[in-house]
Amino acid sequence: MGQMMRGDEERVSFLLDMPAAPHTVPVARGLTHLPGLEGLAGWPRMMRATAFGRAAQRTVDLALAVFGTPAAMACFLGRPADEPLVQHGLDLASTVTWDDWQALARRSAPCVIGDAWEDSWLARHPLASGPAGIRFYAAAPLRDRLGRHQGVLAILSPEPRPQGLSPQEQARLQSLADMMMAERAAGQAARQVAEAESAARRCEQLLRNQAHVIQEMDHRIRNGLQVVSDMLCLQSGTGQDESLAARLASAAGRIQAVAEVHTQLQRRPGEDALGARACLDGLLHAFRRLWQGSGRNIFLQEGPDALVAALDAPRLGIVAWELLANAMRHGQGDVTLALLPEESPQRLRLVVRDEGPGSERIARAAEQGGGESGLGLLRIIAGGEPAQVRYGPPTEVSIVLDLPPAA
After folding, report:
1. What's the CATH number of domain 2-199, 3.30.43.10, 3.40.50.300, 3.30.450.40, 3.30.420.40?
2. Is 391 helix (H, G, I), strand (E, B) or coil?
3. I need a labelling partner for 46 at 20 to 30 A (CA). Which of 199, 213, 217, 386 fits?
C-alpha cells in the first residue's frame, strides 16, 4: 500500500503541472426540463455523500483540468440498485439508462474514439445519438487491487477530436484511473479497520458484561452456601446424638469450603483457572477463623504451584478442608498443609501433617474407605485413589487428586 500511495503522489505531481482547462459548459444544457425526466435529476448524486464518491468526484474534476474537455465521468459496474456514475459536465437527466451506462462500464480495454459518428459501437449509444451529442470519447479501465475490472474513467466532448490522445495523454488518463481505485482501496481498508475496531469494542463490552454476571453468580452462590453451612452448624449444636452432630459439622465444613472457593472465583471474574496455592491460602484464612481458640497453628508449606480449572477448584477445596478438619479433630500440635506435584501433570497430592502419633481410627477409615473421617467421600471426590496414612510423630495423611489440565 505504501508503494501504491507513493506512486499516486508521483502521478499527482505531474498532473498538477498541466495548464488549467478552459471554462467548461455542461453538455446538453436544459435537458433537465424534458417531460417525464425530472425524477432522474438527483439519481447519481447520492454517491457523493460517501468518502469514495467525493474522491471520485475530485478525480473527475482533475481529468477535466488536465485534458480540457467539457465533460468527464467515472462509470462503475454494478446492479440496478447501485449508483453507476460520478460525472461533471453531463446533463444528469439525459435519456441514458442504467443499461447504457453499464455498456460503457463493461469495456475493459483502454478506448479512444476521436469521432463517434465514425465508430459503429459508440454511434448507436445514447450519449452520441441522444441529446448529449457526444463525438469524442476516451476511457481508461478502472481495476481493483486484484486486477478485476470495475468500470471506466472517461473524458468526453461534443466536438470530435480526430487526433485522439497521444500515448503520454493516455498514460495520464490511466494514472488518474489508478489513483481513483487507490483511493477506493484506501477507503475500503479504513472501513475494515474501523469495523474491526468496532467489533473489538463490542467483544470487550460483552466480556465485561459476562465477567460481571459470573462475579454476581459466584457472590450469590457463596452467600447461599454460607447460609446452608451456618444452618448445619446450628443444627449440629442442638444436643443431638454425637455421631449425627459430627456428621452435620463435617457437612457444614465441606459446604463452607466450596463457599470459600467461590469467594476466590468472585475476585477473579471471567478467569477459567486459578492458582492452587492461592485457592488453598484463601481457604486457610477461613479455616483458621473457625479454630482460632484451639491454640494450634495451621500453615501452608512453601512449594510449587499449579493451575486448577475453575470448575475443579471446589474439589480441591473440599479435599483440603476435610484433611485439615481431621488433623484438628484427631491429631495434636501444629498442622501443615502441603501441595506436592505428581509425575503426571494432571495429578496433585495434598498432604496434611500434625505433631501427634496418629489415630488408629483414621488409619482404619483410610483402609476401609469410610467412617466419620470422611475419607471415603474424599476418595470419590479426588478421583478414586484411597488416602494414605503414615504414623508419626509427625502423622501424615495424603491423597492424590486427578485434575484435568486447566485451559
Report:
1. 3.30.450.40
2. coil
3. 199
What span, in angstroms and rounded, lies between the C-alpha atoms of 256 and 282? 12
For each of the chain's 407 residues, which pLDDT tens digit applies? 344 434 443 333 333 333 333 333 333 332 233 233 233 333 344 454 677 888 888 899 999 999 999 999 998 888 776 666 788 877 644 568 888 889 999 998 999 999 999 999 999 998 898 888 899 999 999 999 899 999 999 999 999 999 999 999 999 999 999 999 998 888 888 888 999 999 999 998 988 888 778 778 777 877 787 777 777 777 776 666 777 777 777 788 888 888 888 888 878 777 788 888 988 998 898 888 888 888 899 999 998 888 888 888 888 998 999 899 888 888 899 999 999 988 887 888 999 999 988 766 666 655 555 544 567 778 888 887 888 888 878 889 999 988 876 65
H helices within 106-166, ranges in order? Answer: 120-123, 126-129
The answer, as to whether pTM is greater than 0.85, is no
Cα of first residue to Cα of last residue in the chain, in angstroms, is: 39
- Bridge partners of 74, per DSSP, are 86, 153
Q: CATH topology for 273-407?
A: Heat Shock Protein 90 (3.30.565)
Q: Domain spans of the chain?
A: 2-199, 273-407
Q: Which residues contact 32 (CB under 8 A, 6 or more apart)?
A: 38, 41, 91, 92, 93
